[in-house]
Amino acid sequence: MVNSDKELVKSFLDGNQEAFNILANKFKQKIYWHSRRMLGNHLDADEVTQEVLIVMYEKLTTFKFDSSLFTWIYSITNRRCLNYIKKRNVKRIFSIDSEDMTERKSDEDLVKNFEDGEKLEKLDKLLKYLPAKQREIFILRNFEELSYAEISKITGKSVGGLKANYFHAIKKITEMNDEE
Amino acid sequence: MKNKYDDYIFRYLSDLLNENERNEFESELKVDSNLQNRFEAIRSNLKNIKQLIPADSDSVYFSNLVPKIRERMDSGRSRKIFSGTVKKAFGFGLAAVLVMIVVLQNGEDTIEPVIESVTSLFESANGEELNEFIELRYSDLADYDLISKIDLAIYSSAINEQIVVNDEDMYDHAGYSYLGLDGINDINESDEDEIYASLIDKKIL
User: Fold this and answer.
1) Least buried of A170, B70, B110, B189, by fewest C-beta within 10 Å?
2) Contact A161 B58 (CB under 8 A)
């Protein structure tokens, strides 16, 4: 039985489709929740999650294990989320879509009970006020508990820049909390 | 209301203090009850945010996710929307529309570099790139590089900046401008902390 990420990737590249299913099942929730926190709604997070899994499937041949698979997947997810946010901003500038995309909602969501729904709504509301680069560091540090060095590998940004962005992120979050 | 200790605490929590400052902060924390109260309040607020995770999420969604993307990949492979010629024609048509949008939004004076960039992008794009771009619009399956360049061209004109539309030169892989300090890596970590702390002091960052 193969277990490690490296063995699973090798097995998948040798044609074992089940190995990919194991990898996808292992990472799907992390991908979804990172996207959900970055994008603020289920529909966008679902779309990005599916895209990331497809990219994983198609690009695993190029993965060289220079970093951990986790870092590689988070880099893809994070970049997709940032591109998505950039696309939304462009749409907003041209008023193609006047709807505030973070408010994009549907009856379809992951949480079914009221209490969980309230938690998520509160979180989406808080994170919405952070610019994307502050949001990413806040999420990766606060929720994923990653070190600056790990976040630097994922985002490709310098540790000093990340610290500065984290400083501003917690400052804004605290100010918002004080105002409430 | 802003508390006088806040910036000091945020720097400590962000790891922006050097070793001496850090020791000093920790010593003050032991004796200054106001600092202690504020520090605990901020830390507990951040902890509370971390608890904003649903206890129960839809397991059916996650169980269906992998079969769903497999189905999506299969249908993507079997679907060929455009032939090569149609793709080229569509690409140029789209470029013309984009340029018109930019002209309408910004006036002719500011968009010349953008027109050139968007047009040259389509002129230089090979069939595969156009294919990717078209597929991106229709199925959202392809890579974002090409659309990112177009978005950047439009965006830069929209904010009326005469920047060169080349995201490899101007932006790192996560999409951040190298005009900021983020791209400077030829200094060590402690220099960097000092620089960022001083920029925050001076309200530049």
Assistant:
1) B189
2) no
What per-residue confidence (pLDDT) applies to B150? Answer: 55
Of the candidates B34, B35, B31, the residue with the CA atom closest to the CA atom of residue B8: B35
Q: Is A19 on the interface with B (CB under 8 A)?
A: no
| Set of chain A residues whose Cβ sits within 8 Å of the Cβ of B17 | none
Model pLDDT for residues B146-194, shown as the tens digit of each residue:
555 555 555 454 444 333 334 444 444 444 443 333 444 455 667 777 7
Of the residues A75, A158, A177, the best mutation for testing chain B's interface (the one with the most B CB atoms within 10 Å of its CB) is A158
pTM of the model: 0.67
Planar angle of CA B171, A27, A119, nearest 5 degrees: 85
Structure tokens that stand for B140 in this block: 């959202």
The reply to whether A131 touches chain B by the CB within 8 Å rule is no
- Which of left, alpha, beta for B113 (phi over 0: left; psi -120 to 50: alpha)? alpha
Paired tokens of A110? 């992951």
Assess: ipTM above 0.90: no
Question: B50 is written with which tokens?
Answer: 């971390």
Read off the tokens for A4: 């490690």
Q: Which residues contact A45 (CB under 8 A, 6 or more apart)?
A: A32, A35, A36, A38, A39
CA-closest candidate to residue B175, choices A26, A156, A177? A156
| Chain B residues whose beta carbon lies within 8 Å of the beta carbon of residue A123 | 49, 52
Separation in Å, CA of B56 to nearest CA in chain A? 7
Residue B189 touches chain A, beta carbons under 8 Å: yes
Q: For residue range B104-142, list pLDDT tens digits in order.
A: 665 555 555 555 655 555 555 555 555 555 444 433 433
**CA distances, B181 to each of A62, A129, A159, B64, B165 (Å):** 30, 23, 11, 43, 20
